[in-house]
Amino acid sequence: MADLKLERTFPIPPEDLFAWISVAERLLQWWGPEGVHVPEHTLDFSRVGPWYSVMQNGEGQRFKVSGHVTHVDPPNSVGFTWGWHDDQDQRGAESHVTLRIEAAGGGARLVVDHRDLGDDEIAANHEKGWTSTLNKLAGLAQ
Q1: What domain range includes position 96?
Q2: CB-based contact 9:138 (threshold 8 Å)
Q3: Coiled-coil regions in this chain (predicted)?
Q4: Pairing between β-strand 4-10 and β-strand 107-115 as defined by DSSP bridges
Q5: CA geometry: angle 93, 99, 109, nearest 5 deg
Q6: Three-state secondary structure of the chain
Q7: Residue 128's closest CA among 56, 66, 120, 89?
Q8: For the CA atoms of 127, 3, 60, 19, what is the dihedral angle to 10 degrees?
């Protein structure tokens, strides 16, 4: 199984960065790669329980992902499972994500730890997606 770990530092306090993850109105501003929006969701990373989101790109393609929030530890981390759905809305292989926040100098570091991704190609695709998503967050969380 391939794993992915990305880090990004932000010039805001850890509590503020945690709000960008756990407050749905903020999360929706950066959730998903650049060029997509989220027309449907039950994103709520402030509590344990199920979640899903549908990301839609500029050509109208829709991509559904769902999971279960497994832990919320303010302002340190949120963990959740992750599984893409196919065109028949069947959920595929499950992986695990932890978004961890650490103090870093005068700001905060976000560590995205995405595990059990299957093979290297799947991990590389997720790395592109998470990197693009973090670019959106970096433009907002200042």
Answers
A1: 4-140
A2: no
A3: none
A4: antiparallel
A5: 145
A6: CCCEEEEEEECCCHHHHHHHHHCHHHHHHHCCCCCEEEEEECCCCCCCEEEEEEEEECCCCEEEEEEEEEEEECCCEEEEEEEEECCCCCECCCEEEEEEEEEECCEEEEEEEEECCCCHHHHHHHHHHHHHHHHHHHHHCC
A7: 120
A8: -80
CA–CA separation, 85 and 14 (whole Å): 32
Domain CATH code at residue 99: 3.30.530.20
pLDDT tens digit sequence for 65-98 = 999 999 999 999 999 999 999 999 999 999 999 9
The strand pairing partners of 67, in sequence order, are 51
Instruction: Using only the alpha carbons of the chain, give its radius of gyration.
Output: 14
The C-alpha atoms of residue 55 and residue 36 are separated, in whole angstroms, by: 6
Q: Is 114 exposed, middle or buried (0-12, 13-18, 19+ CB in 10 A)?
A: buried
For 30, other C-beta atoms within 10 Å of its C-beta total 20
Query: How many domains, in total, are found in the chain?
Result: 1
Average per-residue pLDDT in the chain?
96
Residue-wise pLDDT for 109-129, tens only, equals 999 999 999 989 999 999 999
